[in-house]
Amino acid sequence: MKTYTKPSDTDLHKTLTKEQYEVTQHEATEPPFHNAFWDNKKPGIYVDVASGEPLFSSLDKFDSGTGWPSFTRPLEDQNVERREDRRLFMKRTEVRSKHGESHLGHVFDDGPAPTGLRYCINSASLRFIPVEKLEAEGYGRYLPLFKNDKDDSKATSTRAVATLAGGCFWGMEDILRQIPGVLETRVGYAGGSTNKPTYQDVSRGDTGHAEAVEVVFDPSRVSYEDLLGYFFRMHDPTTLNRQHNDVGTQYRSVIFYHDDEQRQVAERVKERVQRSGKWDRPIVTEIVPAGEFWTAEDYHQKYLQKHPGGYTCHYLRD
Question: Of the residues 168, 175, 202, 210, which is catalytic?
Answer without folding.
Answer: 168
